[in-house]
Automatic annotation (TrEMBL):
One of its GO terms (molecular function) is triacylglycerol lipase activity. Gene3D superfamilies: alpha/beta hydrolase. GO terms for biological process: lipid metabolic process. It holds the Pfam family Lipase_3. It comes from Saccharopolyspora shandongensis. This is Triacylglycerol lipase. It comes from the Bacteria. Residues 75-208 form the Fungal lipase-type domain.
Length: 271
């Protein structure tokens, strides 16, 4: 199917919009000049780029994101990271918990610190860009998906007037405990869409019971078909079709399924 132009008037869930937000999540990996040029081509007349170095106590060196605004829409996209590095983030002391937004529950310490490094600039850009009641969207892949979820939670719970219209994440790891997941799911019901591709290993980490996913999942099966609902048993059976023993091996199914290019491809295939 031919993909239509980026529709800035969208205010609800559409797979076409998921495609463009996946493109935005992919764009967040690029350099500032490419981000500014591409967002202009997509019809956004305002763009801010965020980049902050992290201290040496964490495996990932920096946090990167961008905000883009038009007369109808504001999007915030966070960059992900390499699977080998996300493995380091999801292990050892980096899985210690930090207080959640507005004191609600607990969140992954590493993710919290990464977001803290750029959150004030992100919040200020959203407030400036959203000057005429534009719709507000958060997106990200991998680590970027975790940051998109946490940023959307923080911006709403600290300022309920900034309710996001949608949060679309791709290959997002578990990010928080139940005491944040519950209020988040209630406040952003029918606004959060967490895309998971078959055996993508990152959404399986860090392990339960401390960390939990937020709703609402959209699942690509081993043949690439998108399911809006799938039972636990059916999902488990499907995952075994592509299973390999080392989920972090370069050629493993868990890594192949995690790539942002694969998410973009599968969404386009399902349009």
């Amino acid at each position: 199917m031919t993909v239509l132009e980026f529709d800035h008037a969208v205010t609800d869930y559409r797979l076409q919009h998921a495609y463009w937000l996946a493109r935005a999540a992919k764009l967040a990996y690029d350099d500032e000049a490419t981000i500014r040029k591409t967002t202009r081509e997509w019809g956004f007349d305002r763009c801010e780029y965020f980049h902050a170095e992290l201290d040496e106590s964490f495996p990932i060196e920096d946090t990167q994101a961008f905000a883009a605004g038009s007369d109808k829409m504001v999007i915030v996209a966070f960059r992900g990271t390499e699977p080998k590095k996300i493995k380091d983030w999801l292990s050892d002391t980096n899985t210690l918990a930090a207080p959640g937004p507005a004191g609600k529950g607990l969140v992954h310490l590493g993710f919290s610190r990464a977001l803290d490094s750029i959150y004030p600039q992100v919040r200020d850009a959203v407030q400036r860009f959203r000057d005429d009641d534009q719709s507000l969207w958060f997106t990200g892949h991998s680590l970027g998906g975790a940051l998109a979820m946490l940023a959307s939670a923080r911006i709403f719970f600290e300022d309920p007037q900034l309710l996001p219209d949608g949060v679309y994440t791709f290959g997002q790891p578990r990010t928080c405990d139940r005491l944040l997941a519950g209020p988040y799911n209630e406040a952003l019901a029918a606004r959060v869409f967490r895309f998971v591709n078959n055996n993508d290993v990152v959404p399986q980490l860090p392990p339960e019971p401390v960390f939990h996913h937020v709703d609402d999942v959209r699942y690509f099966d081993s043949s690439g078909k998108l399911h809006e609902k799938i039972t636990f048993t059916a999902g488990l059976t499907d995952k075994f079709k592509g299973f390999t023993s080392d989920a972090f091996a370069p050629a493993a199914d868990g890594i192949r399924d995690h790539m942002i290019d694969r998410y973009v491809e599968l969404i386009q295939k399902n349009l």
